Amino acid sequence: MDAAFLSTWSWDNLGAYKYVLYAPLVGKAVAARAWERASPDHWLLLLLVLFGLRAFTYQLWSSFSNMIFATGRRRIVRDGVGFDQIDKEWDWDNFLILQAHLAAAAFYAFPSLLHLPSWDARGLAVAALLHVFATEPLFYVAHRAFHRGHLFSCYHSLHHSIKVPQPFTAGFATPLEQLVLGALMAVPLATACAAGFGSVGLAFAYALGFDFLRAMGHCNVEVFPAGLFHALPLLRYLIYTPTYHTIHHAKKESNFCLFMPLFDLLGGTLDGQSWELQRKASAGVDDVPEFVFLAHTVDVMHSMHVPFVFRTFVSTPFSVQLFLLPIWPFAVVIMLVMWACSTKAFAVSGYRLRARLHQTWVVPRFGLQYFLPFAKDGINRQIELAILRADKMGAKVVSLAALNKNEALNGGGTLFVNKHPGLRVRVVHGNTLTAAVILNEIPEGTSEVFMTGATSKLGRVIALYLCRKKIRVMMMTMSTERFQNIRMEAAPEHQQYLVQVTKYGSAQHCKTWIVGKWLSPREQRWAPPGTHFHQFVVPPILGFRRDCTYGKLAAMRLPKDVQGLNACEYTLERGLVHACHAGGVVHFLEGYEHHEVGAIDVDRIDVVWEAALRHGLQPV
């Protein structure tokens, strides 16, 4: 069935290459040296700057909307934004491309627009009056029309398919709707120019103000204090609120106005609960997570892989991208401020599993800091405060990520459990499931493995488990004492399968390497062709050998009933989490009452693995 006229964008098939459509405008501006005031095409530069600022306005509101640590209490719709919504709204800025070309065409059609003054206050007054008495009522009528029959089913239903309004949702509409909205937006500007009161400042002020209010209405965070409307009752009919607009998204047949609820009052479509719901949203309520995953960033680039920076970027596996380079300096400044001022972890994302809230909190420290001796106490203090905060909130489980449970840092979480014996929240390092994932990746029939990091927490338990299966484990370690301690933990009949080696050359015929310590290219050369490198080293080793294969860090796929998941965990694909994260989830779902800290119990590996599969987690 053919799509309705103007219901799809003609450049949908271009993907990211759609920005080439700006090329004629940019090329003309460069050729005409539009940055020079004397250039006859100086207006082109102003036009491009305006549309850049318009896009930036929506991005700023998106960042604000996704700052769970700052706005979580006043969120209106409590559901998370899932990958499906992010994909739908990926091309939210299509309307800016359309309007930029229409604006350029208007300048060419009416040459008098090329000579607008910088500012004329009379134009602002004219535009304000026209907005109130023309744009607002015309939008109200058009909006109600788009909620009927053919117009709704073929056009406006797309916008209402979004359940959790976001600033980018404002741009998620069909070309016909954006043409109508653009025409209504142009009425005040065109009238002011026709009356001789137009100016560059008016175009910037009106367009940016229009976008600011649209993005605010869709931000899903109540920004107005209820006391303001109590003190000034008339104000509630002159400016809408995010709650007011969210009611329209939910109920569809009320609150149709653009920015002024007055027209809903006059049209009899004002929802009677609008102000009571606004008051409740403004007062705020805490979302108490029952499960917390306490993560950290790896470096400055990775610190930008969070929903409140670029929502689309975080919905894809992390990789260093060129568009991040211009904002790297700003990220460094923020990093320094966080190092100096931060006292606690902050929530960056969340999802619901079995209708129960899981959140990811981030300790504002980067990977390098974990290896600086003088930073140890400060990092532990922040982890401890996060655990105590989760305990006070009523969380059930706090799962420690990667370096937050480093043995040298805090004994795999033992430090906090010993210091606070009365903790109600369970502290979990999740490494039991990490070990299970690695062990279940080893092919059946394997008779020998080589392992680096063999005396680490994970190395120890993997070696003990494998020797029970009568698999020979070559444990790379220079410490005979630590090797002997692990060997003595094995049953006498299994001790023969644990072998200490001190040179990589000992593994030159072994094709199964388990890597728990960084391997240089030179060290990797000892592996025979066809070797597979299983990994539990952070950060993972780089793949230098084309004749070998490299496993990723242990991970599992979350159950299918997860809702609101919108961020990829580091370099993992959508829906995947590191095994230590999954281990905390299993601990929570099973309702285990013990802390999982310190040494890993080899007897619990199969128990936790079976529990993970039973709850719908899947190996990758």
How does this structure look, described?
- With 620 residues, this protein is of the alpha/beta class.
- The chain folds into 3 domains: 12-283, no CATH class; 291-428 and 568-619, no CATH class; 438-553, NAD(P)-binding Rossmann-like Domain (Rossmann fold).
- The protein is built from 25 helices and 14 strands.
- The protein has helices spanning 23-31, 42-65, 68-71, 83-88, 94-109, 121-145, 149-160, 175-194, 200-217, 226-231, 242-251, 262-267, 274-283, 300-303, 311-314, 328-341, 376-393, 407-410, 414-419, 431-441, 457-468, 480-489, 521-524, 579-590, 605-614, and strands at 291-296, 346-353, 356-363, 397-400, 426-428, 448-452, 472-476, 498-501, 512-515, 532-535, 549-553, 555-557, 576-578, 618-619.
- The longest helix has 25 residues, at 121-145.
- It starts with 22 loop residues before the first helix and ends with a strand.
- Residues 129-269 form the Fatty acid hydroxylase domain.
